[in-house]
Amino acid sequence: MARYLKHPVSGAIQAEEKWLEEMPTWQERTLDQGKFKSREQQFADLIEVVEDENGDWIAVGIDEE
Asked: What is the pLDDT of residue 17?
């Protein structure tokens, strides 16, 4: 079964394999605070999600209260 990941800013959801294919094209950059963000760190920021029975994407391991 494919693992799906969501970009925390754009909300884009893709299979992990697709994110990994795109990762070499991502720009490594320095954030506004002066901290460097590598491609690997950007990938780590993606959120694992699963689709529920209603077709909504739910973050894995995050309890909603």
From this structure: 96
Determine the structural domain holding residue 39 and report its residue range: 4-59
Give 53's DSSP letter: T
> Residue 32: helix, strand or coil by DSSP?
coil
Residue 61's pLDDT band (boundaries 50, 70, 90)? confident
Residues 6+ apart with CB under 8 A from 12: 6
Count of structural domains, the chain: 1
Position 10 in a domain: yes
The pLDDT-based confidence of 26 (bands split at 50, 70, 90) is: confident
